[in-house]
Give the backbone structure.
Amino acid sequence: EAGVTQFPSHSVIEKGQTVTLRCDPISGHDNLYWYRRVMGKEIKFLLHFVKESKQDESGMPNNRFLAERTGGTYSTLKVQPAELEDSGVYFCASSPRGSPNTGELFFGEGSRLTVL
Amino acid sequence: GEDVEQSLFLSVREGDSSVINCTYTDSSSTYLYWYKQEPGAGLQLLTYIFSNMDMKQDQRLTVLLNKKDKHLSLRIADTQTGDSAIYFCAESIGAGSYQLTFGKGTKLSVIP
């Protein structure tokens, strides 16, 4: 069974440009999450989808970030326009419906974003 | 202050035991977790403990929870070079909570 996959693995862009990160969750997982780790900081929650609906987006830093999950399958996270402080690793995770009772999220390898 | 704190680095010799410590601030934490991130890979759940437990053992891994002191530790017995990774402590609040609060991670280096 394929795990959570993320694309691209690394993106280097200039300040002011736009970047779109993609996440393919484990097939059948209704829950999809985005987290990010800014350099030297903790991994922070961004938002949570249940199928195509945003369940909680309280962690989104500002309106330059837009997450979508059309059709309840893969998700995209767009940063427009990117700023220097957006540099970091963006993790996507998924979990089955009704979970996580024990908090097990299945994480992807992350997309590293570098804003110059 | 940070919600979850852990030391950033730990170095041990192969065959020794490793102990990674973590402190958290939220007394209403329901579950506490240890995630492992190997180089070039995503985070993988290593083990977890429910807040009403003091200890959990799983093969070479022992998790100790001191709820009074809000202290969590992960002990790896007979540490191997394959255990070299970053270990993240995390907490969630409330049953079924998906919002995990992570520490910065402890990088474990195992010396052959």
